[in-house]
Protein: DNA polymerase IV
Organism: Candidatus Marimicrobium litorale
Amino acid sequence: MKDDQSEPLRKIIHIDMDAFFASVEQRDNPLLRDKPVAVGGSARRGVVAAASYEARQYGVRSAMPSITAARRCPSLVFVPPRFEVYRSVSEQIRDIFNQYSDLVEPLSLDEAYLDVTQDKRTVGSAIQTAELIRASIHQQTGLTASAGVSYNKFLAKVASDQNKPNGIFVVRPQEGAQFAAGLPVRRFYGVGPKTAERMNQLEIHMGADLRAQSIVFLREHFGNSADYLYNAVRGVDHRPVRPDRIRKSVGRERTFQHDLQSENDLRDALNHVIESVWERITKNEAAGRTVTLKVKYSDFRQITRSKSFERCVNGRQHLSSVAHELLTQLLPVPLGVRLIGLTMSSLVDQSSPATAPTRVRQHTFDF
């Protein structure tokens, strides 16, 4: 366990696009600008994939059932997702990142870490680099991004959310521990609703409360997360930015406008999901050993079936065969099906081996 700052400081930027999917839709359709927009779903069924800031004012959030979102915001406009457009814009943004750093770790289509310690463009400042990146994104895509700048990944990611939308927040090395102490525990990585509830029962509400606990206490109550929590609340996180970061899984889901029940309809729908998953597998140059099928019935009951192999799934046809075999196990379905999802996990990288991250050195330019 490391609990000091003995390693050289890094200069880390976390860039997070503002309401990315919804902002792209508002950019491309002037009629949607300044209106509450939900990407995905419909007024009657489905799930919101993303919400504009106008919609968020009504409490509409991603992953919310569409019917709940429509109830909260009667004027909400639902638009179908256009993932091919989002991917294209994401590639534009990625090109901008690569101009400023060779160490870029994408987390999703709309966010990434950059290690700018090497100062590739000799800007002279990590803060100024973040501002140049945000300006380039706006100039080239018409979209806004928020940035967090700090000396480690944990603080940079939290910081990027401080001044959203279209803002920047900086946590300097001498400010890290104090900043972390002032955070609600829910904002620490890996602290979900259940863990936060358990912390609250232990009278741990803020980072300062967490910092007051011994490592023995944390290990007793939070197991494998203890060391991370102990360090993070002290502003310590030595994880490097990894440009070779591999996804743990790749999957897609499809919610239907009308419940499906016949075998032919279900297999046709599954074929579309298979194509989408295989496209992502190919794009990420990865392969996996486990295939999982998810089916959600009209009463919202959910069931999954999985199959794992000693070796990776061998091509699209093999994936299709396994997926349909898993579906066969569920036929005939007792109720109409509202959603089908397919995931490939236990992924391995199929691209050329990446070199190990180099040990960073101290630089003299201002943070």
Summary: Residues 1-5, 350-365 have pLDDT under 50 and may be disordered. The domain at 249-349 is CATH 3.30.1490.100 (Dna Ligase; domain 1).
